[in-house]
Design a protein that fits this description.
With about 170 residues, the protein is α/β, with parallel strands linked by helices. It has a single domain, classed as Rossmann fold, CATH 3.40.50. Helix content is about 55%, strand content about 15%. It is built from 8 helices and 5 strands; from the N terminus they run E-H-E-H-H-H-E-H-E-H-H-E-H. It has a 5-stranded parallel β-sheet with strand order 2-3-1-4-5, sandwiched between helices. Helix 1 packs across helix 8, helix 2 crosses helix 4 and helix 4 packs parallel to helix 5. It is globular, with a radius of gyration of 15 Å. The mean pLDDT is about 90.
């Protein structure tokens, strides 16, 4: 079976949404951003959901939104915390190739600048480095394709994803 969706995973700031839009245009596919779906369904920003309901409830909401997705031939940008749900990842893998947009920790920090209001699922006593170190092995474990994004333009990353998808099908 040919998996038609391209699912982007990675740390906040890795460029999943930005790369996703450009990739979708370049491949003639519709684009879905699960973070935007969550915000639409909850009528709140991600950070507001986390502040009001806590991280565990946010992760439950994220999992449900992903599980409700039933699309073919789309580019899907996920939230960085989707990696905590094996259920959601297995659902996405059924008809999708998982592409990990990999960045060094220093580059994540540089891109995020002020990440406090960004809606990152992170306990108050944890640092961004703690989250990075926890998530990277999970991203690597679930990825079908890994794209190292450091020092590359969006166009370079999109080209590399397209080439990798083509090679993956062969």
């Amino acid at each position: 079976m040919n998996k038609s969706n391209i699912v982007l995973i990675g740390m906040p700031g890795a460029g999943k949404s930005t790369v996703g839009v450009v990739l979708a245009k370049a491949m003639g596919k519709p684009f879905i951003d699960t973070d935007l779906l969550i915000q639409q369904k909850q009528d709140m920003l991600l950070q507001e959901i986390i502040d009001k309901h806590g991280i565990n409830k946010f992760l439950d909401i994220e999992e449900k939104v992903v599980m409700d997705l039933d699309v073919k031939d789309h580019v899907i940008a996920t939230g960085g915390s989707v990696i905590y749900s094996d259920l959601a990842l297995n659902h996405l893998k059924k008809d999708g190739k998982i592409v990990y947009l990999k960045l060094s920790f220093d580059e994540v920090v540089k891109r995020l600048k002020d990440f406090k209001g960004r809606g990152i699922a992170m306990e108050k006593n944890r640092t961004l480095l703690d989250v990075y170190n926890e998530r990277v092995p999970l991203y690597e474990k679930h990825a079908d394709i890994t794209i190292v994004c450091s020092n590359k333009t969006i166009e370079d990353i999109v080209f590399e994803i397209k080439e990798s998808i083509y090679m993956y099908k062969a």
